[in-house]
């Protein structure tokens, strides 16, 4: 058992690891506490409920992921390369899963959206926010690529960005149900088609 | 209480209705029986477990949906119109949901894939089969459209068909989490982009 301040972080870390694999309903507070090495009493000192933990789990995952996405942009040159870097970073989580455990666990946000959209309004609001921010990041790059004359096609930047996020979520779902990481290789070629690139 | 032969069908009907909304884990056998007006003892006369019921629920839903998809093809003329009819039929379930209840419940197969892929191997095998059959139906039309010189683009018929299924699943997920049916209007324009049409 570490210091109290560590306990909260350990609970959040365990929740992120377990929730993506096991989902929301099947995952109990006791299991999260056991994995985190924290007593159940401590859990309720930090979080009001599993729902409250889930909101913070989504927030924490997205804060970290957004940081990785922003970092991925710095290494790329020009809006099209940046779009590709962003998309590769978004699906990189799945490749890393497969590399480490031999199993694609899917997208935390997509998994939760499919499972609890109608049951947990506060979780749902956070998921909408995460998808909106992903769409905004992509739409910004699509607008830059279009201004630079690098992509053609029709559709507003936001509609195209939503199409890319949908393509990623759908492909990750299909890759997960088959546990086949090679399906992820199609995301960028399909993004090029959606954007009228290449 | 109807005849015994009805009880099985009523359990399956209730399961299809409830599982798409409530998911797998949160839905209990007792709730399904209550909705179906069937005693719990009867349930276990017909089904070994909730897992066994879920396998039959997926099979039953897909058998009926495939019939609707095939019927939608008969009213359409030529492979591109048929592709559009097929896609509109696949997302029509969501529009019907919204029209009837004001809520988009998502795709039964996608919801289950996101929730139980790693926990219920038999359910997963059925989901893979359903997605494979959807891909095959679309790939057949893509091949016909290509032979007729109606679509250009690169990519094998099956890869393009998978891209369309992924676009549908991803868009339905985003439409569900926002409960916004207007997002579904983008599926066909995005299908055109993926296929190099229009």
Question: How would you characterize this protein structure?
Answer:
Chains A, B: InterPro entries: Homeodomain-like_sf, HTH_TetR, Tet_transcr_reg_TetR-rel_C_sf, TetR_C. Chains A, B: Keywords: DNA-binding, Transcription, Transcription regulation. Chains A, B: Residues 5-65 form the HTH tetR-type domain. Chains A, B: Pfam families: TetR_C_13, TetR_N. Chains A, B: Residues 28-47 bind DNA. The structure is a homodimer of 198-residue chains. In chain A, α1 packs across α4, α1 crosses α6 (108-116) and α4 (50-74) runs parallel beside α7 (121-147). Chain A is built from nine helices and no strands. By secondary structure, the first copy, chain A, is an all-alpha fold. Chain A has two domains: 1-47, Arc Repressor Mutant, subunit A; 49-195, Tetracycline Repressor, domain 2. The model of chain A has no long low-confidence stretch (mean pLDDT 94). Chain A starts with a helix and ends with a helix. At the A-B interface, α6, α7, α8 and α9 of A face α6, α7, α8 and α9 of B.
């Amino acid at each position: 058992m570490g210091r109290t301040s560590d306990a909260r972080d350990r609970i959040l870390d365990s929740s992120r690891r377990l929730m993506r694999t096991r989902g929301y309903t099947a995952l109990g507070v006791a299991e999260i506490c056991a994995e985190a090495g924290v007593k159940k009493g401590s859990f309720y000192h930090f979080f009001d409920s599993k729902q409250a933990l889930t909101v913070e789990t989504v927030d924490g995952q997205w804060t970290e992921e957004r940081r990785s996405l922003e970092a991925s942009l710095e290494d790329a040159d020009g809006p099209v390369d940046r779009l590709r870097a962003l998309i590769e970073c978004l699906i990189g989580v799945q490749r890393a899963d497969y590399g480490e455990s031999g199993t694609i666990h899917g997208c935390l946000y997509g998994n939760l959206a499919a499972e609890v959209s109608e049951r947990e309004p506060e979780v749902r609001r956070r998921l909408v926010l995460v998808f909106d921010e992903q769409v905004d990041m992509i739409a910004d790059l699509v607008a830059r690529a279009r201004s630079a004359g690098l992509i053609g096609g029709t559709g507003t930047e936001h509609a195209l960005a939503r199409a890319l996020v949908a393509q990623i979520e759908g492909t990750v779902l299909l890759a997960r149900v088959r546990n086949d990481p090679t399906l992820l290789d199609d995301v960028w070629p399909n993004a090029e088609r959606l954007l009228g690139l290449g």
